[in-house]
Amino acid sequence: MAGWLPHVYDAAMKPLEKTRFEKIRAGLVHKAQGRALEIGFGTGANFRYYRNVEQVDAIEPNPAMAKQAVKRIRKSRIPIRLYQAKAEQLPFADNSFDSVVATLVFCTIPEPIRALQEIQRVSKPGAKLLLFEHVKMDQKIMGKTQKALTPIWKKLCDGCHLDRDTLELVKASGWEVQKVTSYYGGLFLTIECRNPQ
Q: pTM for the full model?
């Protein structure tokens, strides 16, 4: 990915981060406990919200994004270790994590079911999976619009699928969905899950 993309991403997300997104992220990340794994940490926007964890192991496949996160790690109260890795192939042992956090990342993962299964592998029985994602909308016209725009959008935005039904993917992968909260007319969801294995 081009080196300019992390800067564009931060600039585009800044107005949203200052409003409700910031509260949604903070509320979700505060629920993480024990040893936490963050999937696709991007520029490190979530790092300041970790409170009740021992440490965070954070993965990101894009080295340009990771460079932007270093400043945020220095400000964190929690130990954070960064790994250049993909969600579909995690470099961790089975049953390692108490909590897993992923925010605005499942839209870009090439093989989301495989990633969810891999996350389940490295999660302890009963571990939490905490997601904040934009998803395919239920409204027919909006859903069709998302589908039509996705091919162009993927090229412009690092593989982002506007029409991905992340909630259904989570259910299909074997996670136990405990709570779903809808925002902005169903365009964004928080999904709280438990590893039943």
A: 0.82
